[in-house]
From TrEMBL:
Residues 1-24 form the signal peptide. This is RAB6A, member RAS oncogene family. Pfam families: Ras. Keywords: GTP-binding, Nucleotide-binding, Signal. SUPFAM superfamilies: P-loop containing nucleoside triphosphate hydrolases. Coiled coil: none annotated.
Length: 161
């Protein structure tokens, strides 16, 4: 089992094709600007059971904007939805913060996997050049239905071809 830092939140930067996770730790703070400079996406994750982690998200998002301006996709993520009974930040508060900061928003549970794939899908869909392919990708898909064919009798040689 893992222990959590008092103001646990994750700050994840995508440096394609690398993924950097600083876990919100101050010891990585001096390295973060160099990662941000070359990043296309920043995912700022807070713990929905920890008010301090939520309060810190504005600072992290401001840091990203200082380095990248508006040339970056930012996703604000409320994590630990599996701990609903300990929730301190409502979904509405997360949505409101994301709206105020003009960033994307989603809630997840890394523990159960809830919305994790959706998080990455939404980030991928927001990448430059993906807007036009999102609708088109459905059109380009082909339905393939595999049906079991009737079994052929096996000949004495063991081959049924």
């Amino acid at each position: 089992s893992s222990t959590f830092h008092p103001f646990l939140f994750h700050f994840i930067l995508f440096l394609l094709p690398s993924l950097w996770d600083t876990a919100g730790q101050e010891r990585f703070r001096s390295l973060i600007p160099s990662y941000i400079r070359d990043s296309t996406v920043a995912v700022v994750v807070y713990d929905i059971t920890n008010v301090n982690s939520f309060q810190q998200t504005t600072k992290w998002i401001d840091d990203v904007r200082t380095e990248r301006g508006s040339d970056v996709i930012i996703m604000l993520v409320g994590n630990k939805t599996d701990l609903a009974d300990k929730r301190q930040i409502t979904t509405e508060e997360g949505e409101q913060r994301a709206k105020e900061l003009n960033v994307l928003f989603i809630e997840t549970s890394a523990k159960t996997g809830y919305n994790v794939k959706q998080l990455f899908r939404r980030v991928a869909a927001a990448l430059p050049g993906m807007e036009s392919t999102q609708d088109k990708s459905r059109e380009d898909m082909i339905d393939i239905k595999l049906e079991k064919t009737p079994e052929q009798p096996v000949s004495e040689g063991g081959c049924s071809c």
